[in-house]
Each structure stands twice: as structure tokens, then as C-alpha cells.
Amino acid sequence: MIRVLVVEDEPVAAEAHRAYVDRTPGFTTAAVAGSGAAALDALARQPVDLVLLDMNLPDGHGIDLCRRIRGAGAQVDVLAVTSARELATVRAAAAHGVVGYLLKPFTYPALRDRLAAYAEYHARLHAGGDAAGQDDVDRVLGGVRPSRPAPLPKGMGRETLDAVVA
User: Fold this and answer.
1) H helices of the chain, where?
2) Axis crossing angle, helix 36-45 with helix 62-71, rounded to the nearest 10
3) Are 8 and 34 in contact (CB under 8 A)?
4) What single DSSP character describes residue 141?
5) Tens of pLDDT, residues 63-72
6) How far does CA 142 lie from the centroid of its chain?
7) Smallest Cα–Cα separation from 67: which of 110, 97, 90?
8) Degrees (nearest 5) of the Cα angle 3, 105, 13?
9) Is 27 in a helix, a strand, or coil?
10) Which pTM was predicted?
11) CA distance 91 to 25
12) Are residues 17 and 54 in contact, defined by beta-carbon separation less than 8 angstroms?
């Protein structure tokens, strides 16, 4: 069972997130926190595998909370569930180890799909062993890889690129 800490300052949204987590097979809500301080307290008191994190909290930004979680040495993954759409925030989240980012408003199926993908990711990480190859590494990192080769600069053909690389 994957234990989830919901960090959301809006009570109605927090309750919806809790209900969504609890109706997703393999997941349970360990706690709900309405602030960064309450989240850190909850993490110190009980085991948690995944934090559903709103970026806009009354006592600070979610990125700052990520820094504090990492600084405390907590071995927990973070999935941002937020209305923060600024690309700088998305990049900062990725830099601080956020494993996924879901924009509000979202439906239960959208969160359920993210949780299911997280469950696969969690299982792969906890299986241990070595990666068999690049595809295994890409899957653990969320499959961030180009689906097709990037276009070449104007005027450069594949043979030119091959000569430059060689």
C-alpha cells in the first residue's frame, strides 16, 4: 500500500484529494496537512511514500517545502498538484525531485492515472537491481526521452551531422 500525504490549504480541495487517493487501489491517505509546517510534522510522525503537494501554501511556496523535505533527509516522492502554471515553477519543481506535476483543476481519472503511473515507478525503484539498458533508465526517470530525433539546423543534412559528430 502506498501511503500518501496530501498537502493542500483549501479544505474542500484537500478533502477531494484525500477521497481520490483513498478510492485508488493500492493507495491510502496517511495524513492531510494544510501548511508546510504541518506537512513537515506529519512526515516526522509517520511513514509516507508520496506527497501530493500544492505549490501555494499559507506559510510558503511548495518549492521551499521541497527543499526542506530534502534537507531533512526524508525519502519521499513528491507529486505537485497545483494551479501554479509558471514554467519557472515547473522547472524548479523538477530540479527539486518532483516526480510529476498535475495542474488544477483536474478530474479523478487524471489523478488516478498519475497515481497508477507512480505505482509503476515506485515498484520499479523498489525492485532493486540494475538497469538492463537505456529503456529501463528512461522508465525510472519517467520516460523523458525524445520520441523522434530532433530536427537538424537549417541547411544541415544528416551526412553533415554525421561528419561533425565523427
Assistant:
1) 11-22, 36-45, 62-71, 87-95, 108-127, 134-140, 158-165
2) 30
3) yes
4) T
5) 999 999 988 8
6) 10
7) 97
8) 50
9) strand
10) 0.81
11) 30
12) no
Question: Is the distance from CB of 62 to CB of 56 less than 8 angstroms?
Answer: yes
Greatest CA separation for the chain:
60
Instruction: Compute CA 55 distance to the chain's CA centroid, rounded to the nearest angstrom.
Output: 12
Burial class (CB in 10 A: 0-12, 13-18, 19+), 145: exposed
- Note the pLDDT of residue 155: 58
Q: Confirm if 104 and 83 have CB atoms less than 8 A apart.
A: yes
Average pLDDT, stretch 89-113? 93
Cα angle 4, 24, 59; round to 5: 30
What secondary structure letter does DSSP report for 133?
Answer: S
